[in-house]
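Translate sequence into structure tokens.
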Amino acid sequence: MATAAITVPALIVHVLAAVVWVGGMFFAHQVLRPSAAALDPQPRLTLWMRVLDRFFCWVLAAIALLLASGYVLVFGAYGGFRALPLFVELMQAIGILMMLLFFHLYFAPWRRFRRAVARQDWLEGGRELARIRTIVTINLVLGVLVVAIGGSGRYWS
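Result follows.
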């Protein structure tokens, strides 16, 4: 097993990457979405394209950091997959599901959304944004669940 010199920085990176991803989804869903809803389609969809373009770069970085730091912790703190407690297995499974959902969002609805906005097809852009919102809502619920599991799991009896 690794020392605290490896596991503590890995845990800090892991928690901060999760905060960026889940916190960003919370902000987009609960703050920006209702605020932007009053805008006409052109400025609303243009705003969303700019916001999501920047946010998705952070999500991609967060995913890379979550995977790297998570597996450093699996091997450093737990000695490999054989000794993982249930809460870590749950976080891993839900986290991978979240990543798969994000990659679907990124390579399908997001790509179509960007094309629609570029050609100023506001109706199609709105439909794709609704698809993105659905996936973000699912991932937000899953992300909050993972945070709750991660914060409480070591105290389960």
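Note: Residues 4-155 form one domain.
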